[in-house]
Amino acid sequence: MTAAHRTVLWDLDGTLVGLRKRGFKTLMPLTAALAFRDLTPPHRFLRVLAGVLPEVRRNETDRTNTEFMVDLLADRLDIGRERVDERLRRLAEHDFVRLRRCFPALPEAVSTVRDLHDAGVPQIVATNPLWPLSTATTRLRWGGHDPGVFEFITSGETMRRSKPRVEFYRELLDRLGLAARDCGMIGNDAANDAPAARIGIPVFLLGVAETAVPQECSRTGLVTTGDWTRLRVWLGNEEKSCSSS
User: Fold this and answer.
1) Which Pfam family is one of those matched by this entry (predicted)?
2) Cys bridge to 155: 59, 101, 102, 133, which one at CB 3.0-4.6 A?
């Protein structure tokens, strides 16, 4: 892949910003439950949320993922849709700050994004779109990025499909008006990010062993694995990266 001729699609957690998985998996549901604690007991909310999230990932409706999540939570919790929507927005815009320590900055990501931006390469954040946009822009800022550098950021408010489904990548390409050959996907999760290769998008996986790539993705010949140095070679950006280090 040569970045000068491609739009770069970035995964967010673990790629553009660090992710402390254990802390996030514990704190995110608890933070959400606290946002609803005056409407329903936290233990009940946690049980319902655990069932709702997989359904949102399987969304087959014409509703956005956020709309679908609000509808499911309102129905399962027997709370008015408007109140659920208001609490989710408050969670995203105010309470989410409690998770700050789960998302450390990655200097290699910051420098690579900067170099691509300086070279005029279009960049997209292709994060799993389960939550509102503000949660993504907040994480980007925590990671040392300017969200304005990215031409589009996937979110629950704009997307109807989720990773690891190939339909997510098709929906994203349709929204961007791009062909698969015009893009390159960079991520760190073989299960979620490698499926982009199944529709013809070249994929680079950071810190992933080749043996971890699903066979239906690896046999496309479009999946490359390696570290940040190898990524810069893949992007055709090696000299610039070396000179700016």
Assistant:
1) Hydrolase
2) 133
